[in-house]
Amino acid sequence: MTTEVSTATQAQQAKSQHTLAPSGSMRARMEALIRQKQNEIVGAMEKIDGKQFFRDHWERPDGTGEGITAAIEDGNVIERGGALISVVHGKLPEAAVRKMRENHSSLRDKPDGDLPYWVCGLSMIMHPRNPMAPTVHLNYRYFETQNEDGSPQAWWFGGGADLTPYYLFEEDAKLFHKCLKNACDKYDPRYYPDFKAWCDKYFVNHHRGEARGIGGIFFDDLVDEDPEKVFSFVTACFNAFLESYPVILERRKDMPFTPEQKQWQLIRRGRYVEFNLLHDRGTQFGILAPGARIESILISLPLNVSWRYNFHPKEGSEEAKLVEVLKSPREWV
Amino acid sequence: MTTEVSTATQAQQAKSQHTLAPSGSMRARMEALIRQKQNEIVGAMEKIDGKQFFRDHWERPDGTGEGITAAIEDGNVIERGGALISVVHGKLPEAAVRKMRENHSSLRDKPDGDLPYWVCGLSMIMHPRNPMAPTVHLNYRYFETQNEDGSPQAWWFGGGADLTPYYLFEEDAKLFHKCLKNACDKYDPRYYPDFKAWCDKYFVNHHRGEARGIGGIFFDDLVDEDPEKVFSFVTACFNAFLESYPVILERRKDMPFTPEQKQWQLIRRGRYVEFNLLHDRGTQFGILAPGARIESILISLPLNVSWRYNFHPKEGSEEAKLVEVLKSPREWV
């Protein structure tokens, strides 16, 4: 456990910039939400695992950001996992703004030049020890660009959650998707089908022609005339995770398994690494950013991984059944 | 062990296109060289390991290429490794030619439009079981574009070899570099310093600010008024490997080691995976190519890998000594 301590002055500056957000602003509320949800998620996982997460608080030396990495390694139930929050601000260079405009319509009519931005988010991943228990990933974030007076200019929410089983238990897939669908349906009937399809399209190991897992939801650039609606939707998404994954983990964590089943899990974890390092834009963007916190970003990688040449499960086996589903994503609810 | 068999006609076409190369042509000679060196390397490794490599011969169904993947998993000495040859031809689309021109001067004055090409090469990687023994990588290839009558137009050689120890034995680093320098010096006194520097610049985990290993040589676009000279140099490079790595492996394969030292090896192997998937252009290009042989490309990844949060070796330890060298590459000969 380490803490990077900036100089007192820099830390002070950072603090004052954070608290500049009016107490009722979306920035302040989203920051409060991710702090609360980090605690809830870590609390739920610690309760199941029996071992405490360690917490690593960091601040950028120049006062432009801070975060908390809460992580676990060699837990009783979770082999490796982390729940990370970060709150970061700065100036986007003009070239980055131009690039961002392609995917974020609310940026399109903004002036050229460097643009002040503010972003906060929570990223989470859990790799359980038992191969019957699925790996899970979640990320929700709020992005804002600002006018000269610090008031919000363009903004959007992004994120999602997806499940990566090593053995397919349909009731788990259904519960995970059902909770997400319920969260979506309260706000917009198009959310679940759209965001489920987006997830199936994004989390793909293109070089292997198979999905990373059995999906969930994924969205970016989510805006609405009513920002409250989107904030409330994101809160519901967090809750959908808290209502489903701990239940799934409890169901699977003590199931018996063979060394061959553990080996299959390690091979599938290799696929997880391949996706994160070859295809995941978030990981690549994060890692290549100057001053990136590599260890926090790569907490997404499993503790143990294995590669085997041309390993194909036997026809009709449970392993083959999973691969079939990964090759053609299904509807679960 | 599998063999992909194309239809008889397609295979026949492929064969006839290969044998179109005049028997004394560079294509025919380089193909013969990589076949011979694959056998010599695999033979040398099998002799040390005591276990046979398996061989997986493949042909592209459309007759545009073939190769042999020779690999080993769970050997006595080598945990995972492969020596792959491939001989492939086709047409480069105009956009690819334009891109290639940036780095290959001999292409610059060639006509626009699709361009027939022919390439063959040998890629090799060995991950030994014992953490005192280094991982090694080698790749040499010959690329040629062709006129309408099949005669060579532009051509070049590329490749290199580099060593990735988990514990630093200076005598190993020196032997590896000395053999490469001897091979270089016979042809051009600038080769070794230039190609050693190129290697140090290329095999870098930029996101961690450290080299993958202790280097070797790396070159691309190598041409000369006298093609014989370059072919002879590449032959000498292969021999430099055969003169050094088997000696190093014999020295280290039976050394005692602790579970902690094995654990360190697994963590360092994570860095190897990070380089290959995040930074290596060859891997990324190979994987994203249509019809890529993923399992052959990813034979470069180790059998077992581990990620640990913020693992830093103790000051003054052997592990720390290695990291120091990776942070500032040294001259070895």
Automatic annotation (TrEMBL), chains A, B:
Its EC number is 1.3.3.3. Residues 1-24 are annotated as: Disordered. One of its GO terms (cellular component) is cytoplasm. Keywords: Heme biosynthesis, Oxidoreductase, Porphyrin biosynthesis. Pathway: Porphyrin-containing compound metabolism; protoporphyrin-IX biosynthesis; protoporphyrinogen-IX from coproporphyrinogen-III (O2 route): step 1/1. SUPFAM superfamilies: Coproporphyrinogen III oxidase. GO terms for molecular function: coproporphyrinogen oxidase activity. GO terms for biological process: protoporphyrinogen IX biosynthetic process. Belongs to the aerobic coproporphyrinogen-III oxidase family. Homodimer. This is coproporphyrinogen oxidase.
